[in-house]
Amino acid sequence: MPDIGYLFKKYRQYLFYFLALLVLGWGFTPYKTIFLGLILGTTVSFINLWLLYKKTIKFSEAILNGKKAYSLGMLSRFAYAGLAILIAIKFPNYFNIIATVIGLLASTGVIFGEYFLMFITKRNQEER
Fold this sequence. Notes:
By secondary structure, the protein is an all-alpha fold. It has one domain (4-114). It contains 5 helices and no strands. α1 (4-28) packs antiparallel against α2 (32-64). It is flat. The relative contact order is 0.16. The mean pLDDT is 93.
C-alpha cells in the first residue's frame, strides 16, 4: 500500500487541476453560479481531505507511541461542509446549492478514481 503522504500529494494535485478547470469554466461559460458552487464545494472538500490527512498522521503517531488516540475530527469536517452549504443558501445569486453539494464530494471522487486506476494498472501488470 502506498504511503499516505504520497497519496495525499497525488490527491492534492488532482484536486488543484480540477479546481483550475472549474475556474476556467466559471470564467468562460454563462453558468457562473454552478461553477462557483462547484468551486466552493471542492475547496471545502480539499480542506476536509487535508484535515483528515493531518489527523490521520497524529492518530498513527499516537498509536505508535502507545498514547491515547482520540478522533479523526469528523465533527470539524461536518462543520466545514455545513458552513459551505450555509454560504450557498445565504447567497443563492452566487452559489448553486446542488453544485456545492456535488463539489463537497470531489475529494471522495478523486480517491475512488485513483483507487480504480491503481486497481486497473495492478491487474494489467499481473496479466503480463
